[in-house]
Amino acid sequence: MEFMRILLSILVLIFHGNTGVLSEAGVLVLDYYKEACPLVEEIVRRNVEIAVLRDPRMAASLLRLHFHDCFVMGCDASILLDTFGDMISEKQAGPNLNSVRGFGVIDNIKHLVEEACPYTVSCADILAIVARDAVVLVQISINSLHELATTAI
C-alpha cells in the first residue's frame, strides 16, 4: 500500500501542470491539439460561454462534472457513459443521479468537435478543457465585477 502511495505521488509530480496528450511514443505533448485539431479550443470556449450566459450556475456544474469523472477511477470520461443492460453507469449511479448536470452542454460540444476533427479529440480531454474554460470564464467575470466596484467608489 505504501509503495502505491509513493508511486502515485511520483506520477502526480511528473505530470502536474502538463496539459498535453500522449504522442505515439507515449510522451505527453504540450499543445497537441494545436496541430491535431486547431479549432477545439475555440469550439469549447465559445460553447462554454454560451452555456454560462444562459445559466450562470453552469460553470460550477461543468467543473463538478469533471471532478466526478476524475474521482472514481481517473479522468476517463466514464461519467458520460449511459447505463447498458444491467450495468449501471456512473451517470446514473446513486451519488450522481439528479445531482450532476451539464451533460447536454458536453454532448453539444462533443458533436461540434467531432464534426471539426473526427476521431481526434478524446471525451476526457473535452471534459478537462470545458472545466478549465468554465473556471477561467468565472474568474474573468469576478475580475470585471471587482473593477466595476472599485471604479464606482
Element layout with pairings:
Layout: H1 2-15, E1 21-22, E2 28-29, H2 32-36, H3 40-54, H4 58-73, H5 103-116, H6 123-152
Antiparallel strand pairs: 1-2
Brief descriptors of the model:
single chain, 153 residues, mainly alpha, Peroxidase, domain 1, two-stranded antiparallel sheet, 6 helices, 61% helix
Given helix and strand content, the structural type is mainly alpha
* Shape estimate: globular
Mean pLDDT value: 83
Query: Can you identify the CATH class?
Result: Mainly Alpha
- Please report which band the strand proportion falls in: under 5%, 5-15%, 15-25%, 25-35%, 35-45% or over 45%: under 5%
Question: Can you count the beta strands?
Answer: 2
For the record, the CATH architecture stands as Orthogonal Bundle
Order of helices and strands: HEEHHHHH
| Integer-rounded radius of gyration | 18 Å
Largest sheet: 2 strands, antiparallel
Strand order of the largest sheet: 1-2
Number of domains: 1
Helix count, DSSP H or I runs of 4 or more residues: 6
N- and C-termini, Cα separation: 57 Å
Low-confidence stretches: 11-19
**Helical coverage, percent range:** 55-70%
Which fold name corresponds to the CATH topology? Peroxidase, domain 1
Brief characterization of the structure:
With 153 residues, this protein is mainly alpha-helical.
